[in-house]
Amino acid sequence: MGRTLADKLWDAHVVRAVTGEPDLLYIDLHLLHEVNTPQAFDGLRAAGRTVRRPELTLATEDHATPTDDLRKPIADPVAREYLDLIRRNCAEFGIELYSLGAGRRGIVHVIGPELGLTQPGMTIACCDSHTTTHGAFGTLAFGIGTSQVEHVLATQTLPLDRPETMRITIDGRLPAGTTAKDLILAVIAQIGTAGAQGYVVEFGGEAIRALSMEGRMTVCNMSVEAGARAGIIAPDDTTIDYLRGRPYAPTAFEQEAEYWRTLVSDPDAVFGKEVHVDATRVAPTVSWGTNPAQSAPLSAAVPDPADMLDPSDRAAAERALSYMGLTPGTPLRDLAIDVVFVGSCTNGRIEDLRAAADVLRGRTVSAGVAMLVMPGSETVRQQAIAEGLLDVFTGAGAELRHSGCSMCVALNEDRIGPGLRAASTNNRNFEGRQGPGARTHLVSPAVAAATAVAGHLAAPTDLEV
Questions:
Q1: How many CB atoms lie within 10 A of CB 49?
Q2: What are phi and psi of 342, to 5 degrees?
Q3: Is the separation of the CB atoms in 265 and 3 below 8 Å?
Q4: 339-342 and 421-424 as β-strands: parallel, antiparallel, unpaired?
Q5: 208: three-class secondary structure by DSSP
Q6: Dihedral sign from CA coordinates of 125, 130, 135, 140
Q7: How many helices (H) and strands (E) does the chain have?
Q8: pLDDT higher for 69 or 90?
Q9: Which domains does the chain have, with CATH numbers?
Q10: Which of 44, 80, 204, 455 is a good FRET partner for 339, with 20 to 30 A between their CA atoms?
């Protein structure tokens, strides 16, 4: 029987396998940020341990960092402590850290790929659930907890139970005007937030092959929102072209590229679960509830929980509509928006900023709407400035800030006020995710920009009428 790509990568990294115990996997790259790591370093000190392979570890400041003025003192005492701790810990244990002001600093899942640190065939671990992003390059990438962070720091290995494998095949091509963000929201709406629970999900099919690397990263980034342990896409020429010339790309690049092209599932590989999605039926999509599965085409109306057959779905929808302040039957396009956020590890790459700028060019953000654009890294920010996107954003009335997680997780000063409604390109719309009482609608960068101009949920085509 043939093997899946996930199984091949798993087997290649097993250090120790004992029946009845988790496999011990070697970790090629360990990424850190300032949140969820202080206790891991405390554990190392208490046990008298060092970091086993500091050269395979990279830290960045992203979750609690300010985005408006990097020179001013950090006002939030919790954020300030997070940053102080990671700086002291990295200095003590010999780990490279990209601090505020560093030209390569940015969101951990943006800088790994753009630096070429993320490469096909690797195992990658990080104290963040959206580590699944890196699977777009044909890697096994896992989000891990604090105790696991300590284990990787001390041993460069990670004990894990082998997950089952699942394949999601996206048949056909996406229609014009739809994006990777619309696609993954539609997939999650189809299979649910537990539809991939515990699986390593391999995405394939014509629509996936047609995506850019930025689009593939968006898909794998949000695979965790369907419960996936990891998301993965087999590397191809698109992957190789993206990595060529990156700062940490292999010296013998073409030789490595030949190996990367072999990283595919065997034709007769058997997956534990198969799902098919028709890409031709995907439209601009927006979330209406408080989890990413509660999403619908922008052309739809707020659903009526009474129409839902499953009692748990009905109860979840009733709670969501109460929190979101929505009435069943209201057209989604009628929902007025107070805040628009473009950014996050889901949609903070240069392609995403270009998509938003293309919609804003020659237009103005609606009165009463605040639009913030957060590049995923300082490299992305500088590229946006070089391409003239700063002028587009400021000319339209939007603000381009410095890189960071910002409103995606609301651990710094960037928060949405209670009761305010936001169109956001981040990955989660949980209650309070973007601030206590904030109401979040997940959208693509293009829909976010069109919404900022219209003042209500809208697609770019709505502005042309």
A1: 14
A2: -115, 120
A3: yes
A4: parallel
A5: helix
A6: positive
A7: 16, 19
A8: 90
A9: 6-160 (3.30.499.10), 287-464 (3.30.499.10)
A10: 80
E-state strands within 303-400: 339-342, 370-373, 399-400
Strands (E), 257-361: 273-278, 285-287, 295-297, 339-342
Token readout for 223 is 């695979």
Is 293:189 a contact under the CB 8 Å cutoff? yes
241 alpha-carbon distance from chain centroid: 21
Residue 448: name the closest of 123, 161, 158, 179 by CA.
Answer: 179
H-helix or E-strand spanning residue 238: helix 237-243
Half-sphere exposure of 324 toward its Cβ, with a 13 Å CA cutoff?
A: 29
DSSP string computed for 97-135: EE-TT-TT-B-HHHHHHHHT---TT-EEEESSGGGGGGG
Tokens of 30: 């360990």
The single residue listed with the structure tokens 């590989």 is: 269
Torsion angle of the four alpha carbons 256, 259, 265, 269, in this order, in degrees rounded to the nearest 10: -150
How many residues in total does the chain contain? 465
| Residue-wise pLDDT tens digits, 339-369 | 999 999 999 999 999 999 999 999 999 999 9
3-state SS class at 57: strand
* Rounded Cα–Cα distance for residues 370 and 424 (Å): 12
**Tens of pLDDT, residues 282-320:** 999 999 999 999 999 999 999 999 999 999 999 999 999
Q: Is the CB of residue 200 less than 8 Å from the CB of residue 233?
A: no
Encoded tokens for 268 = 């007769």
Helical segments of 18-67, H only: 38-47
Contact predicate 326/399, CB 8 Å: no
